[in-house]
Amino acid sequence: MPAGEAGPAPKPLYAVVKAHVTQRIRDGSWPPGTRIPSENALGPQLGVSRITINRAFAELARDGVLDKVPGVGTFVARAKPRFGLMTIQDIAEEITARGMAWSSQVLALAELPAPAEAAAALGLKPGTAVPHSAVLHRGDAAPIQHEARWLRPGYSDGYLAQDYTRGTTFAHLVRTGRAKEMEQSITAILPDAALARLLAVPRNQPCLVIRRVTFTDGVPMTLSRLVQPADRFEIAGRAVLENG
């Protein structure tokens, strides 16, 4: 190098950490779904501060390389579970198809007075007793979806007697229900404190809400409200367009 010319500037330490993480992913040391060392553990290994590791992890999460699950850990990102815009799928099958292990926690399973939204959607008087379930679906350790359902009384035999840690409410409704039509909308919300805790997200993280009503012979039979963190879930669809 000629005298007086400076060499290339050294990489910032957070960039060195990012390069280390991405190299471990590329060489197969950390395959998709792997829980990688924590910020406190990786810092001493690389000789950098926790703040440096935190910045590197945050940028890799923003780029879709890592998934940070508060209170659980940081994972190498996998393809996100996906629902169609115009279709209905089993969340367990979708999670499994993305290479994760499905599990669930039943939060509620009882006959309860229908809240105003459910009563209106199902064409019932407010307070009518209806079968209700609330289930938290997980992919590996990460919460993927909070599912709440309300059913018109008598619609699905044995709905409240099932073990929804072994199979989904969707699978049972496919076996016993008679849905012929679907009405679906998608919105975004900021979760309240209780929902944020269940989904392991901060209060300022957007979540997608799928609101779905199914019908049999024009009569509404089920209302579902499905909430999922926007960074762990994808909604997509493809349709044939007819040229006029």
Write the layout of secondary structure elements.
Elements: H1 13-26, H2 39-46, H3 50-62, E1 66-69, E2 73-76, E3 82-84, H4 91-97, E4 102-113, H5 116-122, E5 129-139, E6 142-151, H6 169-176, E7 181-189, H7 193-199, E8 207-216, E9 219-229, E10 234-236
Helix pairs in contact: 1-3, 2-3
Helix and strand succession? HHHEEEHEHEEHEHEEE
Q: What do we call the CATH homologous superfamily of the largest domain?
A: Chorismate lyase-like
Estimate the helix proportion, in percent: 25-40%
CATH topology of the largest domain: Chorismate lyase
Task: Tell me the number of helical segments per DSSP (H or I, 4 or more residues long).
Answer: 7
Structural class: alpha+beta
Bulk shape:
elongated
The total tally of domains equals 2
Mean pLDDT: 88
CATH architecture identity of the largest domain = 3-Layer(aba) Sandwich
Calculate Rg over CA atoms. 23 Å
End-to-end separation in angstroms reads: 67 Å
Overall strand count:
10
Major sheet: order of its strands? 4-5-6-9-8-7
What's the story with the biggest beta sheet? Answer: 6 strands, antiparallel
Strand % is: 25-35%
Please report the first level of CATH classification, the CATH class of the largest domain.
Alpha Beta
Quaternary status? single chain
Low-confidence stretches: none
InterPro entries: Bact_HTH_transcr_reg (IPR050679), Chorismate_lyase_/UTRA_dom_sf (IPR028978), Tscrpt_reg_HTH_GntR (IPR000524), UTRA (IPR011663), WH-like_DNA-bd_sf (IPR036388), WH_DNA-bd_sf (IPR036390)
Protein name: UTRA domain-containing protein
Domain HTH gntR-type: 11-79
Organism: Falsiroseomonas selenitidurans
